[in-house]
Design brief:
five-stranded mixed beta barrel; OB fold (Dihydrolipoamide Acetyltransferase, E2P); seven-stranded mixed sheet; 382 residues; alpha/beta; disordered N terminus
Length: 382
């Protein structure tokens, strides 16, 4: 069989992407099968299940960073559904949204083989599933929509809830997918791929499938701060983390901006939602982070080394001018806020790009800290 030039180019692109894959952070050993309990998962058999059955499971009260929660995370499942959306995330996972006949959705993920540690019992299946998917679709960093019957096999996984597209209400997933086949109609006539609806203007997809609220400037601090219910940061403390090269004078200016945020009138008005809006505790330290291109995943890896015991701490990462930061593939922002789980305790953080003048730096810092107080998960309530 002759392979067309366009197909060969596409295959080469995928091979290069796999070679240079960036990998995730949260519960990554569990996602890819390098945790101590992975060898106990029986891959020679499976349990047939449905999205409905998955959604009936009670979410665990805690999720260990390097251990499994039985029975969901120690069992291989097989289920049929319809694939409706897919995207290649910045952590190199293929993020798939599947739906049943009643409209219930959940997520299935196929990691990159390059992100699977040696010795993982899931490695061969992950590689197989990626090849199966690549033979049918081309996943890019733009969300695509389709309507294709699929049958998947893979291991159950409990994810943290952070606004992922298609996430089940209880956070259950199939992660990793070890085998995926497509309905007979897909083999006969390809179903057209279309772009998914755009996100709101102040939101981007982060590097592992969630949503992050960004600040691009223009509006005054607090103009877009609206409470939509849910968690708030009740007793805030601010730890400013300086990444790269900073003069003492510039450090003082950044710390002064952090200390004065509780003087903002709109911030003070957040006390109606249960936020203590006066006397913020402020501290600082350096954050080792290489220069050049900096992804949100790189920032999360650096934050993993910071001692984190205060559930109401907001870590403000100040990047220097030499860094080229991106979140979800975009650099069009002045600051953003998000959270991740280096442990069971969520870590809330703000990132402020370098190279801004002092007025713009202060505005960007205050804007994202203010939003983080009443939307600590960073999902924009979308």
């Amino acid at each position: 069989m002759r392979i067309s030039l366009s197909l060969a180019t596409g295959l080469l692109f995928l091979a290069v992407a796999e070679l240079h894959a960036a990998c995730g952070v949260e519960r990554w050993s569990v996602k890819t099968g390098t945790d101590p309990q992975a060898p106990s998962v029986v891959l020679s058999s499976y349990i047939s299940s449905t999205i409905y059955n998955f959604l009936q499971s009670t979410r665990p009260s805690s999720l260990p960073s390097n251990g499994r929660v039985a029975p969901r995370e120690t069992t291989q499942y097989r289920l049929g559904a319809t694939l409706t959306k897919y995207i290649r995330e910045s952590d190199s996972d293929y993020h798939l949204v599947i739906v049943d006949s009643s409209g219930r959705t959940m997520i299935a993920e196929i990691p990159s083989s390059n992100c699977v540690g040696a010795g993982s019992p899931f490695g061969p299946g992950i590689s197989h599933a990626r090849q199966q998917f690549d033979a049918r679709f081309t996943a890019t960093t733009s969300m695509k929509t389709t309507s294709t019957p699929v049958t998947i096999k893979g291991v159950g996984f409990w994810d943290f809830l952070h606004g992922q597209t298609g996430v089940a209400p209880n956070g259950i997933e199939v992660h990793p997918v070890l085998d995926i086949t497509f309905g007979s109609t897909a083999a006969v006539a390809p179903i057209p791929e279309t772009d998914a609806p755009p996100l709101p203007p102040d939101m981007v997809l982060d590097d592992d499938g969630g949503r992050v609220q960004v600040y691009r400037g223009g509006e005054a601090v607090g103009d877009s701060i609206l409470f939509h219910g849910g968690a708030v940061v009740e007793d805030p403390s601010i730890r400013v983390l300086f990444a790269g090269t900073w003069s003492e004078d510039d450090k003082r200016a950044a710390l002064a901006a952090a200390r004065s945020i509780d003087g903002e009138q709109r911030v003070r008005e957040l006390d109606r939602y249960g936020v203590r809006t006066f006397g913020f505790r402020v501290s600082s330290q350096m954050l080792p982070l290489p220069g050049g291109e900096v992804l949100d995943l790189d920032i999360q890896r650096a934050l993993e080394a910071v001692q984190h015991v205060d559930p109401d701490a907001i870590y403000v990462v100040m990047l220097d001018a030499s860094m080229q930061p991106a979140v979800g593939g975009t650099r069009d922002w002045l600051s953003y806020h998000s959270q991740f789980h280096p442990s069971e305790l969520p870590m809330r953080y703000v990132v402020v790009r370098g190279g801004l003048d002092r007025a713009a730096m202060q505005d960007a810092m205050r804007a994202s800290i203010s939003r983080a107080l009443v939307n600590p998960e960073g999902d924009g309530w979308y």
